[in-house]
């Protein structure tokens, strides 16, 4: 679960005031309360690469299935993709670090997860809702992390 991650964020909490208050007046005083009381959206996405003529000087992994973007939620937990070339094929691992999930760092650099560590990884990112609803009640700032997905060629 997300308890260790939320525990690492506890120093951001102010403690005495509610982080969020519902319209009916119920207050959430910790990030753990927000996570446990909030709506959890568990779902899967399927992406298929576009079959376009390659651009001049394009590499085989210049096929972003999902360009850099941020999500609207408070907190997202992303697990590794299962790569399958067709419904009848067995899953495979991407061979290039530029294939798969990437996050834009604070300095604008694109950070990737090495393919050999991806199967055991969970990536947490904050969404736009964090800054909108939680950040005003917290001690520090976190930015919504732009992230993208590139599909391995082949």
Distance between the termini: 34 Å
Low-confidence stretches: none
Major beta-sheet overview: 4 strands, antiparallel
Q: What is the percentage of strand-forming residues?
A: 15-25%
Descriptive overview:
With 154 residues, this protein is of the alpha+beta class. It has 3 helices and 8 strands, in the order αββαβββββαβ. The strands form 3 sheets. It has a 4-stranded antiparallel sheet with strand order 3-8-5-6, with no helix packed on it. Strand 5 and strand 6 form a beta hairpin. The longest helix has 7 residues. The protein is elongated, with a radius of gyration of 18 Å.
Tell me briefly what this model is.
This protein is α+β, with helices and mostly antiparallel strands. Helix content is 14%, strand content 19%. The strands form three sheets. The protein has a four-stranded antiparallel sheet with strand order 3-8-5-6, with no helix packed on it. A two-stranded antiparallel ribbon has the order 1-2.
